[in-house]
Amino acid sequence: MVKPPAHAPEKSLKVAIPVRFGDTDPYGVVYFASYFRYCHHGIEELLRHVGCPPHEYFRNADRGFGLPIVGASCDFLRPVRYGDELNLFVSVLRLGARSVTFGFHFYLQGSPECVGRGQASMTAIDRTWRSCQLPEELRNGLEPYLASEAVDR
Ligand SMILES: CC(C)(COP(=O)(O)OP(=O)(O)OC[C@H]1O[C@@H](n2cnc3c(N)ncnc32)[C@H](O)[C@@H]1OP(=O)(O)O)[C@@H](O)C(=O)NCCC(=O)NCCSC(=O)c1cc(O)c2ccccc2c1O
Question: 128 CA distance to ligand 1 centroid (A)?
Fold first, then answer.
């Protein structure tokens, strides 16, 4: 964990996001859907960081569970442009019995001003697409990134 800017959660993972050609609208401003891609990239990086690499973890047929996104939102506070470099701070806002809600704060590199923020929730499902308990190793890995001490089991 690194020390985040003043109003980002204390317990977060910093992920560098270069704004690419193809992320923006015709005016060169980052398109809203791109932020959701960045958010999912942040989730993947956090999972990798806590020992659940998504390219293996999401495709583990033996374990038989999935983690679909069930809700997501973003606020876009300042325009960000092609060529900008963002720092994304990923945290855990809520760790439920069957779901986890991630928090996202975006900053331009070298600036303390938050340019965007959001959240997304993933629910654990079994092979029959019914919600089930979050896998223990995922819960244990994510707990240190929880913004508050509240954990539901
Ligand atoms: C997933 C569902 C089957 C859940 O339905 P259910 O009726 O069981 O939901 P409950 O109301 O009982 O809640 C269970 C659990 O989830 C939390 N929750 C539910 N809705 C929300 C919400 N909108 N926001 C936040 N949290 C929510 C609820 O609080 C409970 O948690 P607790 O911890 O409190 O117990 C059903 O919702 C469903 O089928 N939804 C459709 C999902 C979908 O199609 N999503 C589209 C995108 S899929 C996607 O993006 C995706 C991303 C990934 O990274 C994946 C990784 C790995 C596998 C798949 C992925 C994936 O598909």
Answer: 13
**125 C-beta closer than 6 A to ligand 1:** yes
For the ranges 10-14, 37-41, 124-128, 145-149, the one whose mean pLDDT is highest: 37-41
Per residue, the 3-state secondary structure of 73-141, as one string, reads: EEEECCCCECCCEEEEEEEEEEECCCEEEEEEEEEECCCCCEEEEEEEEEECECCCCCECCCCHHHHHH
> Is 25 an annotated catalytic residue?
yes
Query: Which pTM value belongs to this model?
Result: 0.93
Domain 13-145, architecture per CATH: Roll (3.10)
**Does residue 121's CB lie within 6 angstroms of at least one atom of ligand 1?**
yes
ipTM for the whole complex: 0.96
